[in-house]
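Continuing from the previous page of notes. For each protein in this section, the sequence appears first, followed by its structure tokens. Read the first protein now.
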Amino acid sequence: MGLPHWRFWCVTFLSLTTVLEASEGDADPIYGACVQLCEKTGCVKDDCFRQCNFTSAGNDLDGGKYLQEPLYLKWKQWDCRSDCQYHCMLAREEERKKLGQKPAKYHGKWPFLRVYGIQEPVSVAFSALNLAMHFHGWISFFILIYYKLPLKDNRKTFYEFTGLWHIYGMLAMNSWFWSAVFHSRDVNLTEKLDYSSAVALLGYSLILAILRAFNVRDEAARVTISAPLIAFVTTHILYLNFYALDYGLNMKVCVTMGVAQLLLWFFWSGITRHPSRWKLWAVVVGGAFGMLMEIYDFPPYWGLVDAHALWHATTIPLTYLWWSFIRDDAELRTLIQMKKNK
């Protein structure tokens, strides 16, 4: 697999927290009353929101016939209701703090402070860094394969899994891109794109794990193995997007595929005695350690940094180590193939 087990745990955890979406905060009658009043008046205490003067069509209720809702609000979908929920949450949390009460979750999420309209800015930044690390890893792999290692007479690589890793790199970068977008603004569309891209990466990584662990080099055999898994993952993604976003089902699918590839890599690295197996084991252990923070799940410090954000941070060095393992594997297989051709 591409060992994206950190994305596997991410989707699994998000599925679980969304199943438990009815949270203490949004069940609070004071919070609920605040939101209802804000939607009528457009204000929370002394803070009033201009977008509450717009209809759903974007027209100004105050009489501006041609005035439209600002583009940045349309793009972020910060409408009257979402702004009321956000500011009522902040007001309620301030009251809870004065009473000595702990922070509460609202609609399945901790109370985060927005930064330039971004919902979870630290998670967005770490998702972007993960994307950058995958880009760096893929580019370094590309340079190694085509410019540093010997090529065959037909200019093809000796490493039999080159194309598969290129596809993995594209899927990994796509997945972290949508993770950043989702943490920037959690709406139905960004949620589906994040889940779909993560499931696609997870499914492809399982295929890659099987092909590499069993050293499948015949194209017909690769198609035979890949076809049913591709069909299953595609069907699952279509189901989530066009039938029902079933978080419980998605969690089961992700856990099954994630555990299967983790076990494959763990036993393969031990049996084959791969020279760089310690890197693979370090990634597995490091990912498990990072998950401890995810399970601990504490409220965000300064309204910005929570357990999930820190967990995203731990995957950054693990991604670098993982691509280092891929490059080592390419060098090893190239050396073996060259010796066979002599």
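Done with the first. The second protein uses the same format. Note its length before scrolling.
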Amino acid sequence: MPELPEVERAKRRLEKLAVGTTISKVDISEDPIVFSSVAETSFITNFRGTASTAYRVPRAKSEDDGVWPPKYMKMVITFTNSDESVAGEWAFSDPRRLGRIKLVEAEDADAMEPLSLLGADPLLDMPSVEVLAEALEKRHAPIKAVLLDQNGPLCGIGNWMVDEILFQSRLHPAHPSSALSSTEVQTLHDNIRDVVVTATDVDAEASLFPKHWLFSSRWNKGKKDNNFTLPSGEVVPITYITVGGRTSAVIASVQKLPSGYGGKQATKRAATAAKGKRKAKEEDEDEDDEGEEVEGLTSPHFKKPRTAVKEETSPYFNKTTKLEVDDEKLSTTSKTTRASRSSKSRASR
């Protein structure tokens, strides 16, 4: 999943290609999942012949970079110059179908959902230390979970970025947000900006990231060389734990939980949180089992009403197999089996 530096790189490339040109052609590959809230034909009708503007788009790699349009293409837009010469083409490729293409008819797209639901952009609109501190003070969840919440204080920061930010800030991922000191919040604020700006300045090119970053070593889970060299030269192991539902790379000697937030207390809090999630999931499943659209229950990102999935049979089987048990026969069989085993045991002795 692209994070803010990758998205910013795609945005800059699209901006360089598109701004000042006109959209002359739109080719669509039908996909009701990617085009979640607008018909493909409506999208084409609204876009063709309009002046283009830049917008943030995810970057998707294709195994066949020389093939055009790329594999898993969902949309290709052709841009033309004022003299009607082709300025270039841009394609949206999404093999995992996790992206969404929306048509927002508004002068201020940022004021429309889902963009209006997102947290502050740490590159373009980083909140002050005071604003960030106030937001974190209201959240009792682990700091990693809060930073990963795209509708929380910030957006655009994903798993590897949060791990890097917390390592540079010497904070444990499970550290409760509301328990951060003013000094820790200041350090966290500084490192959020530093990691985001540094990564975007090199166009998200990982080989150009600073050598003292945890990034280059955090992917070694399960490998023999699972160590990291600190700036001091000390070689330390990388520990992997799950926080906020995501795998977290931690340097235990650097990132320590404060006294009172580890051991049994942390386990108890985690168990309570898990119990709450299970309860919410059960309630959610109960709602889905009703088999009808739930009024007012929509996706926070795409405002798509949730409808229960109809019960369907497996495509590999044409009928449902039921196991019917006759209690009387089962009891008789059980007694016969025990008697047979007993006889064999006596014969053996």
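What the second structure shows: The chain has a mean pLDDT of 76. Residues 72 and 94 are 6 Å apart (CA to CA). We return to this in next week's lecture.
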